[in-house]
Amino acid sequence: MPKHLRVRVALVAVVVAVSIWYLYPPKKTINLGLDLQGGIHLMLGVEADKHVASQTDRAAEDLKSALERKGIGVRRIAREGDTTIQVELANPQSWNDVLTVVSEFSAFERREEDQAAGRFKLVATQRRINQLRDDAVRQGLETIRNRVDQFGVAEPTITRQGNDRILIQLPGVQDPARAKALIGKTALLEFKLLDERTSVEQALAGQRPETSEILYRRDVDKQTKVERKTPYVVQKRSLLSGAELTRAEVQADPNSPGNWQVAIEFTPTGTRIFGEVTEQNVGKHLAIILDGNVYSAPRMNERIPGGRAVITGQFTVDDARDLAIVLRAGALPAPVVILEERTVGPSLGADSVRRGITAIVASAVVVVLFMMVYYRLAGLIADVALTLNLLILLACMAAFGATLTLPGIAGIALTIGMAVDTNILIFERIREELRVGKTPRSAIDAGFTRAFRTIIDTHLTVMVTAAILYNFGTGPVKGFAVSLFVGLAASLFTAYFFTRLLFDVVYQGRTKVQTISI
């Protein structure tokens, strides 16, 4: 065998070996999509208006602090609606000084001014409202993606849909309740002081200051599943939030065998604030609140300088692990609601796999038989090339971690047709060369050379289309685009390079070839 043929055979052998290596074992190398292995499909709606309202609350607090630093007294500063701050001064004579401070809040416009009474309103600009709504969806998307990544789902689909929706597909997840709880938990962690001047009975009777609120601790009996709610009177002001966390880990609860707790650690800034809070409030109780629920309210006996705390609450190990995940990933900027939910069972996924494989095998058998009957030995060569094409396609998907979906199987079936069509172009060109009287070796050379441009044109055109589908499509469309693109790239290698190699190997040593089995 000539040296150039040995080099080409060695190259093909390497490609086959690498492909087999990436595909072994197949159950661990190829990720199956939601429609093939089952899982859950969720469409979430982001309540972006609540994010706008919370940011308006924060701006009101910042304005109050800025006025107090200037020595300006205020009778009332409160949010009105989602986008308006109502301000009432204690002394209208400080009007000009107030306007100087308010000018720093460029995201708001002054409305309904009454200088004599010392009243005015600040209304958020439309530009700021739009930006906050967009931020709520973007940050929510990233937070959910971080949570799902830590949850351990292979190849999830998490994309934005429209202005305020998020599409989530989690292949292989068969516990929808746990997944929904993990994804939908706002995870707003806050540390607030208890209002120990107001009794629970007074608060429940409506006799509580405007700066306090009633929150509940919920305990569920593990045996009876009965929920017990314990009320707490809590100051509204948040002293520290989960934004200052750097670590959240699961630990066994040493004070309650069988239960678990979450140990948290703060950033340097959070550590300083936590130390100051515990030092200034020795003897008082600090409530640890998550999404408006009190998890614990320990008494601060001394200053805690290390920036560490624990969250207890009769957690199972899964409860504690999920809580740690959402705390590490951060809080959602706005609550989300489930607008659409579908669960694909593993039996339905297995049925889809079975039907898809049946379709591919059936189409492949028909194509193989047709090529062998119509093109004889050349058809057999094309069938061998087609087998290598499928091997390379699946190996590439495994190597790049692509997800095989039902539309992806359709892409593979289409690839089979494209690969065979490429061989047909070459074979018909060879036949034309034979009809005009060329020798078999010359006809083979001319057939491959002259069909090359047509092959490149057809493949590149469809590959560009597949790339566009991948860039602009969603999960199922992307699955189809990936399998189609990779399959066509493999087809260029097998239908031209590999098929030509087999022709050269078969006819290379036969110097007096009179006919070709084509």
Please describe what this structure looks like:
This protein is α+β, with helices and mostly antiparallel strands. It has three domains: 198 residues, Up-down Bundle (Multidrug efflux transporter AcrB transmembrane fold); 79 residues, Alpha-Beta Plaits (2-Layer Sandwich), CATH 3.30.70; 124 residues, Gyrase A, domain 2 (2-Layer Sandwich), CATH 3.30.1360.200. The chain is built from 14 helices and 19 strands. A four-stranded antiparallel sheet has the order 7-8-2-18. The radius of gyration is 34 Å and the shape is elongated. The chain starts with a helix and ends in an 11-residue tail after the last helix.
Shape: elongated
Low-confidence stretches at least 5 residues in length (pLDDT < 50)? none
* Helix-and-strand structural type: alpha+beta
Which class of the largest domain in CATH terms?
Mainly Alpha
Question: How many DSSP-defined strands?
Answer: 19
Average pLDDT rating: 84
Individual helix count: 14
If strands are numbered along the chain, what order do they take across the biggest sheet?
7-8-2-18
Alpha-carbon Rg, integer? 34 Å
* CATH topology descriptor of the largest domain: Multidrug efflux transporter AcrB transmembrane fold
- CATH H-level superfamily title of the largest domain: Multidrug efflux transporter AcrB transmembrane domain
Distance between the termini: 24 Å
Strand content: 15-25%
How would you sum up the major sheet? Answer: 4 strands, antiparallel
Number of individual domains:
3
Helix content: 40-55%
CATH architecture of the largest domain: Up-down Bundle
